[in-house]
Amino acid sequence: MACRLRRRPQVHDVRQGRQAAGRPQGGAAVVSTRQITLLTQADCTLCEHAKQVLAKVGADHPLTVTEIELTSEEGQRLAMEAGVLFAPGVLLDGRPFSYGRLSERRLRRTLTGTASPASRPSDRSST
């Protein structure tokens, strides 16, 4: 009787071009490189701090950092579009992320996708 209670292994058909649920194809997760634009200026201690934070975070996450002088024409244009009031300004994938002292914790949370709902502007609802 115990033999009849055991389930036989089932084979499930996965359509071509689709992957099995819950399993990444190829065995590894796909990680994309994030683009960071750092708006800096000369003799800026907060800019140096931001560079150190980006170097630390870049060791754990794939980042491409582009540094642009805030006094340049392109730097002023980006600062106006992003609402950066003073250096350093940080744009993550072309969107404003922060200006002033860069928070390593906030950057890491954003890059790993574990930011709390209250810190995401799109998740806030008016009550």
List its salient traits:
alpha+beta, 4 helices, 127 residues, elongated, 4-stranded mixed β-sheet
Detail the topology: elements first, then pairings:
Layout: H1 2-5, E1 34-40, H2 45-58, E2 63-69, H3 73-82, E3 89-92, E4 95-99, H4 104-112
Parallel strand pairs: 1-2
Antiparallel strand pairs: 1-3, 3-4
Compact description:
By secondary structure, the protein is an alpha+beta fold. The protein has 4 helices and 4 strands.
Provide structural commentary.
The longest helix has 14 residues. With 127 residues, this protein is α+β, with helices and mostly antiparallel strands. It has a 4-stranded mixed sheet with strand order 2-1-3-4, with helices on both faces. β1, α2 and β2 form a beta-alpha-beta unit. The protein starts with a helix and ends in a 15-residue tail after the last helix. The C terminus is likely disordered. The chain is elongated and about 80 Å long. The protein has 4 helices and 4 strands. The chain has a domain of 81 residues: Glutaredoxin (3-Layer(aba) Sandwich).
